[in-house]
Amino acid sequence: MAGEGADPVIIDGGDRACVRLLLELRGRLAELPAGTIVHLIAGDPAAPLDLAAWCHLTGHGYLGTVPPPYGERPAYALRVADAPRPTQAESPWRPQG
Predict the structure, then answer these.
(1) Please, which of 11, 26, 41, 77 could form a disulfide with 63 given CB 3.0 to 4.6 Å?
(2) Cβ atoms 75, 41 nearer than 8 A
(3) CA–CA separation, 45 and 59 (whole Å)
(4) How far, CA to CA in Å, does 78 sit from each of 23, 55, 97?
(5) Residue (of 62, 63, 60) closest to 84 by Cα position
C-alpha cells in the first residue's frame, strides 16, 4: 500500500467551511493512490465531526486527530480508500445516484 511507512500527504484546509473543504478534499484524494495517509489541517470547529462522517459515507478511513506537529492548527488523519463511494458533484455529503 502506498501509505505504509511513507510520509503523509499534507493538505492545508485553512479556515474553509467544511462544505468547501470536502469539495476540495474529494478532488485531491482522487489523485492519490489507495492507502495513502493524509493529514488534513482544518480550522473549522466542525471538521472532526464532518470529516469522520464523510469518511464513513465515502469509505475513506478516518484515523482521528493528529498530534500537533502543525503548531496550534488542528489536523486530522485519514487513509485513502481503494474504491471510494462517489458523492454528488456539488454536495460531497450526499451519495451519488
Answers:
(1) 77
(2) yes
(3) 22
(4) 16, 8, 25
(5) 60
